[in-house]
Amino acid sequence: MTSRFAGIGRGQAMLVILLLVAALLGAAWSVTGSPGPRMTPPAEQTDPKLYRSIIAGVESGHGYYPVAAHELRSGHYPLAPFVAFRLPTLAWISAAIGTTGLHWLQLLLGGAVMLAWGWRWREGLAPAELAAALFLLGCGMIGLIQPATAVFHESWAALLLALAIALDRNGSAALAILAGTAALLVRELSAPMILAFAGLALGKGRRRRALGWATSLAIFAIVLILHARAVSGVVLPTDLHSPGWGGLLGPGFAFRSLAIATAAIALPAIPAALLFTTSIFGLASIRADWGVRATLMVAGYFALLTLIARADTFYWAMMAAPLSLVGLAFVPRAMRDLAAALRAVPVTTT
User: Fold this and answer.
1) Exposure letters 78-107 (e unless 16+ CB within 10 A, then b)
2) How far apart are CA 274 and CA 265, in angstroms?
């Protein structure tokens, strides 16, 4: 596996380095005085409490939509538009196996993500590089496999998308498409990535694979229509409406939110922002198909946090978390290639 910078010219290498330095300076500046995530005080209604109350209601035999409407109303949450209601998939699963079982299932999914990536990387990486990549993958996933986050839909969707990228190989993509479809049925925020997967497959001329991803999106569209109809039956005209999105909180907010979702929570804001920026550079430097998908996943959800998220939807950062630090393992490879390009002696003609 080679980086994108192998064999480039000296001028191109200098441009890449200048852009990286500019990105690092911009990242450090962005977190200075940036708005931070708005955390709900423990004494007040929180999203985990809301999800657990809904699960308890479903466990007791009540329908998901009446229970969700009641709990949202009681917690003074918006009930409109229909996306204010999470898809019922996770609540149904948790009601069947309990929240403890849900956490164990999440741990199994996290283990599957680690195994799938370890298998994917086993041939292209040196042992030290492989160990570093898996360690950084674990650092990105650590916040998603805690008991407190087992009821967060974003944590499940993120792990399933990371699994889908690892499983999407040159051979059959059936398992990857299955994982991606599962992510869609847990959290609709997965849709941009599935659209990207379909577009990349079509761009590569892989029509059967593109059709598979399109089928996944078609299933999701049907489920979303049914979900919207069910929500319309329990929402009242007097219910609260969402204040909307488009917060434009900036990259500093995105960096702070991403740190909360990963092991970077232990770092001050500026070093964390520098690490994430460097990691995206490392991911983008990988020539392999999975590097493109991983870069889109991290950078794409980072962009959503920057442009669309509100201060109280900082948990969207979970969607980018699993692969957000992995790119650091590939920075030495990229820098070696850039250094070689800078040392190259230009060919002169006489």
Assistant:
1) bbbeeebbbbbbbbebbbeeebeebbeebe
2) 13
Q: How far apart are CA 168 and CA 166, in angstroms?
A: 6
Question: 181 and 173 in contact (C-beta within 8 Å)?
Answer: no
User: What pLDDT score does 315 carry?
Assistant: 93
Residues sharing a CB contact under 8 Å with residue 228, sequence separation 6 or more, in sequence order: 82
Instruction: Give exposure, 31-69, as e/b (b: 16+ Cβ within 10 Å).
Output: beebeebeeeeeeebebbebbbbbbbbbeeeeebbebbb
Residue 43 phi, psi dihedral angles, 5° rounding: -75, -15
Kindly write down the DSSP assignment for every residue of 255-319, as one continuous string: HHHHHHHSGGGGS-HHHHHHHHHHHHHHHHTB-SHHHHHHHHHHHHHHHHHHHT--GGGGGGGGG
* 199-202, Cβ contacts within 8 angstroms, sequence gap of 24 or more: 200/289, 200/292, 200/293, 201/173
- Cα distances (angstroms) measured from residue 269 to each of 25, 266, 328: 13, 9, 17
Below-70 pLDDT ranges, the chain: 39-45, 345-350
For residue 350, what pLDDT is reported?
A: 40
The model's pTM is 0.95
d(CA 118, CA 115): 5
In the structure encoding, which two tokens stand for residue 285, read together? Answer: 């430097």
Q: What is the pLDDT of residue 44?
A: 56
- Where are the chain's structural domains? 46-340
Question: Would you state the pLDDT for residue 246?
Answer: 76
- Beta carbons of 75 and 98 less than 8 angstroms apart: no
Per-residue model confidence (pLDDT) at position 123 = 84
The pLDDT of residue 206: 92
Please give the pLDDT value at position 23: 98
28, 274 in Cβ contact below 8 A? yes
